[in-house]
Design brief:
heterotetramer; A: alpha/beta; Glutaconate Coenzyme A-transferase; 10-stranded mixed β-sheet; 4 helices; B: Glutaconate Coenzyme A-transferase; 8-stranded mixed β-sheet; 3-stranded antiparallel β-sheet; 11 strands; 21% helix; 27% strand
Chain lengths: 213, 226, 226, 213
């Protein structure tokens, strides 16, 4: 059985050790934080200058001045703090973010990431902070469905969509499993979701899946 | 006596010229100088280049300014946010120019303008469509692109507290682009929730020194924003 | 539980390697991590490149480290402060290298290192002796020179308060180089006057987020510094 | 009678209007602040991140954490604040300082300033923030004795000492008078100290002194 979205987020969350500074992309990656227990102290950073985000507030305790990069209300943990946008991206660009997890349209076997525009003729693609995070974070993971809604593979030999960052992705979490991007080799299976065979995963991928052996 | 506090929104935006480059603070609805944007709509300046993280949403504020045909060009990182209908219409009709800048590069270009740095190198966007036409250069084995400072005539920002010298504090994620935009414009106008007596703001807590601020106007947003 | 607080100065400076580039915070005697410098003297690392605003004074602290022959090179803006006798002796004897950097360029090179900017242009020093060998380039009719980021292995800094996540506040002019040095090193070690419980420091008042700090040690300077 | 040092500082102080952000160099220029009354609100900035300095504290009220660029104890006025070194020099380099007043070894008639090294072979000259201030401040004034101690002129056709900043000085205050640096023209006498004749001032200058007429 492939992972559900929640299981995918939990699976990625399990790999985040205490003490890491982590930026989670808008959409599915944001849910990863819900699977990191508060007592495992992970510092969630948001591009808009929030460092040390806590869980979403109950509806009656929303502070309208406190949102994350996805514009959702959040809270600040004890030990959290605020910086302005230039300082926030100094932290990102300067390599001080241990991990960034983004969604993707495609990931190539050399680690190229495409997640911001669906064609060169896209009239007005929205890039946000994805290129900064892709180039700046110490580690870039991707969390996404293994294929598009109409079944097209998203693990590819090389990206057909415009790139966000070059040779940047280190690991991919999908509904079918966990895959490392190994320089010179490509996608290497770390594990498959329960009941998913290598053949199934390979059939859903355009790039070759290697096994670590 | 230095007193940067003005008594009306009209006074706050007086003198903004046609053709100006206008920075607009905020990220999402937080720290966005809504009242100043409305005042700019009233004020009438046109042929503007607006710099903001988004390209407006709904049909008010920046979107309204665009709909009125007053914005020639928008420089932003995320034009396609939910409800950016006016921008989409104008852009499809070829009635507005767009420059997309990665969010961190946008912040750094503004900071550079404020800090007297005409240009800097960054790895962000290297090798992508957004690097087209930009100088590429290698330092210590990695490729970077050259980005230019982004200086402006006017910055419209929102802050939490101000005093008559123009010192500003922000609240929570309300900082965002506001402090760097304050540095990057010749005329920085701040909409604030609270006016404090000089010396009342803890000097260790000032985020934007008054040096960067020319005009302050109080706009009480009311509950739940206070 | 994240806990960056260490219990001794020896633990704070443990592992600093020969050949390291070491940033030393402070301006004048303010915000200077005296106890950490003494601990580094004890620790024994040699062949160091030290980056500080001054080249030490008297025969203690950085001057003592130099006198012991442990500093290969000093990068600073103002080597000739009153009482920089050790530096003068060593320099005349050809026993220490010197790189003079304008103070603002020094601060910006450190900030650039922390911010992932490999190089930037500045008008400072253009046309002077300190621009020799540096690329010159015109932007909008003015000449600038290219300056490179200055990254380090270790930063020794002083702050006012810290919590176990390494968040730091400073006191008055004690900020100076400390926050930018904290950003620019792989291992940032802070000597602080006060340890606070997590959450006790006002989040709006944190100047150096703990993200930039690896180790914190409490050093009570005693009156009148408290 | 030429101006005394205190009169020179007072003369320069008289030309600083309310509201300016002013950086005063180490040494003689620092004394200018003493001649600006507190009620004329001038914002004195110091390179080490102090904005809005007030007068020196009485000896029993010195805060050891609060010094100026000359390492002297100072106070902070209500409305003052602190920034770190990179933010302080962003303010300087970015053109946000209305006026900087420095001392000098030499000022050339094209506005070149030499104030940091006395020869190219100077073993270890100390530059501090002078080059940043020279290049970054909106206006640069010089406050200095008209000649060296041994009578050598400091207003020169071109500097013989290594330069601090090129074409930067706008005005010079000396014990003999006040002189503007006018592009294409050189030194123009604004006023002479009481009892000092143009001939005396010219005799003490290597560069030509023009009169505004």
């Amino acid at each position: 059985m492939p992972y559900s979205r929640s299981e995918m987020a939990a699976r990625a969350a399990a790999d985040i050790p205490e003490g890491w500074v982590v930026n989670l992309g808008i959409g599915m990656p944001t849910a990863i934080a819900d699977h990191v227990p508060l007592e495992r102290e992970v510092i969630f950073q948001s591009e808009n200058g929030v460092i040390g985000m806590g869980p979403a507030p109950p509806p009656d305790r929303v502070d309208p001045w406190l949102i994350n990069a996805g514009k959702q209300p959040v809270t600040l943990r004890p030990g959290g703090c605020y910086v302005h946008h230039a300082d926030s991206f100094a932290m990102i660009r300067g390599g001080h973010i241990d991990l960034c997890v983004l969604g993707a349209f495609e990931v190539a076997e050399n680690g190229d990431l495409a997640n911001w525009a669906t064609s060169e003729n896209d009239t007005a693609p929205a890039v946000g902070g994805a290129m900064d995070l892709g180039a700046g974070a110490k580690r870039l993971w991707v969390l996404m469905e293994h294929t598009t809604k109409d079944g097209r593979p998203k693990l590819v030999p090389s990206c057909s969509y415009p790139l966000t960052a070059l040779r940047a992705v280190r690991r991919v979490y999908t509904n079918l499993g966990v895959f490392d991007v190994v320089p010179g080799r490509g996608f290497v299976v770390v594990e498959l979701a329960p009941g998913v065979s290598l053949e199934q995963a390979q059939a859903a991928s355009a790039a070759r899946l290697h096994t670590s052996a | 006596m230095i007193n940067k506090i003005v008594q009306s929104l009209a006074e706050a935006v007086a003198g903004i010229k046609d053709g100006s480059t206008v920075l607009i603070g905020g990220f999402g609805s937080v720290g966005q100088p809504d009242a100043l944007i409305e005042a700019l709509i009233e004020q009438g300046a046109k042929d503007l280049t607006c710099v903001a993280n988004n390209a407006g949403s709904g049909r008010t504020g920046l979107a309204r300014l665009m709909e009125l045909g007053r914005v020639r060009k928008i420089i932003c990182s995320f034009p396609r946010s939910s409800g950016s209908v006016v921008f989409e219409e104008l852009y499809k009709a070829g009635k507005i120019e767009l420059e997309i800048v990665p969010q961190g590069t946008l912040a750094e270009r503004l900071r550079a303008a404020g800090a007297g740095i005409p240009a800097f190198y960054t790895a962000t966007a290297q090798g992508t469509l957004l690097a087209r036409g930009k100088e590429e250069r290698e330092f210590d084995g990695r490729l970077y692109i050259l980005e230019r400072a982004l200086r402006a005539d006017v910055a419209l920002i929102e802050a939490w507290e101000a005093d008559r010298w123009g010192n500003l504090t922000y609240r929570a994620s309300g900082r965002n682009f506001n402090p760097v935009m304050a540095m990057a414009a010749d005329l920085t106008i701040a909409q604030v929730q609270h006016i404090r007596e000089l010396g009342e703001i803890d000097p260790e807590r000032v985020i934007t020194p008054g040096v960067y601020v020319q005009r302050v106007v109080r706009v009480d947003r009311g509950s739940p924003w206070v």
